[in-house]
């Protein structure tokens, strides 16, 4: 039974990757599907970032002495003002280093 399940999972995984590339189905997607793709990175990355910013050591919630959270607010402001990823990351990391060391 275990081998059958392993083989079945392998076949399903193969078909998921093969069918879109083979041309069996149409490559034109409806407009609402294409428009919804722009929200995928936001939906995936938001929980990862929020959990990393709010939960520190021993799975406790820290808000007052959390330098990551303050640096994230600074990075959000920089992103809204300059709309540049490199500047946002640089200033966000620099602000975290400054806040955590001084």
Q: How big a fraction of the residues is strand?
A: under 5%
Molecular shape: flat
| Low-pLDDT runs | none
List SSEs in N-to-C order.
Answer: HHHEEHH
Oligomeric state of this protein: single chain
| Helicity level | over 70%
| Number of beta strands | 2
Radius of gyration: 21 Å
- How would a textbook summarize the main sheet? 2 strands, antiparallel
Q: What is the distance, rounded to the nearest whole angstrom, between the alpha carbons of the first and last residues?
A: 60 Å
For the biggest β-sheet, the strand order reads 1-2
Annotation field: number of helices: 5
**Average pLDDT, to the nearest integer?**
87
SSE class: mainly alpha
Model description:
- The structure is a single chain.
- This protein has 102 residues and is mostly helical.
- The protein is built from five helices and two strands; from the N terminus they run αααββαα.
- It is 74% helix and 4% strand.
- It has a two-stranded antiparallel sheet.
- The chain is flat.
- The termini are far apart.
What are its keywords?
102 residues; mainly alpha; two-stranded antiparallel ribbon
